[in-house]
Write a structure and sequence with these properties.
The protein is an alpha+beta fold. It has a single domain, classed as Sulfite Oxidase, Chain A, domain 2 (Alpha-Beta Complex). The chain is 22% helix and 27% strand. It is built from six helices and eleven strands. A five-stranded mixed β-sheet has the order 2-1-11-5-6. Strands 3-4-8-9 form a four-stranded antiparallel β-sheet, with no helix packed on it. β5 and β6 form a beta hairpin. The protein is globular. The N and C termini lie far apart (53 Å).
């Protein structure tokens, strides 16, 4: 029986029946107004975290670490009064991630963490802020779940009006939802 299972899996891999996301872990998935999807609808079994959070979609753009690294990397050092030390964070610009997903340049993006925390930003702010990055490394190490990974949204202090401390710096990011202007 085990040999039959191995043959089925090898055959599926050989003929491309296993989604790319299974070959390498997906760190971040972009849903909503996505013009360049690379995956289909939510699978209620395989996408259990999306089910738990009530996130439904017909198509999405999934990004692996390799995909995010290929978008070009920026490094920024951020520190807030409530932090014990600065953090040097490296990853692609959030604007570049959204452009690769085919997101419109207006509307909003909601950045969501594994625990359900989310923060919504206007696309104009995302587009105009070169130091707003979706970090995949901090202080020279890959971000991991249990730390601030799989990804971490960082931007300079004072960017968001009325922002106190580090509000809006979403860590443990796994999902970005793009809403066009009419859904604001």
């Amino acid at each position: 029986m085990r040999q039959l299972w191995v043959l089925i899996v090898v055959g599926a891999l050989s003929f491309g029946f296993v989604p790319q996301a299974w070959a390498e872990p997906v760190l971040v998935t972009v849903t909503g107004a996505v013009g360049k999807p690379n995956r289909g609808a939510r699978d209620d079994f395989a996408d259990a975290l999306f089910v738990v959070h009530g996130i439904a979609f017909e198509a999405a753009r999934a990004f692996t670490r390799v995909d995010l690294a290929a978008l070009g990397q920026r490094e920024t050092t951020v520190v807030y009064d409530v932090w014990p030390r600065p953090a040097s964070v490296r990853g692609p610009r959030l604007a570049d991630v959204l452009a690769a997903a085919g997101a419109p340049r207006d509307g909003t993006v909601t950045v969501q963490a594994l625990d359900g925390y989310s923060f919504t930003l206007p696309m104009e702010m995302v587009e105009s802020t070169p130091d707003m990055i979706l970090g995949i490394e901090a202080d020279g190490k890959s971000l991991s779940i249990g730390g601030r990974g799989p990804a971490w949204l960082v931007f300079p202090p004072g960017l968001v009006p009325g922002q106190e401390e580090d509000h809006g710096l979403v860590w443990a990011v796994f999902h970005l939802r793009v809403s066009p202007p009419e859904e604001k």
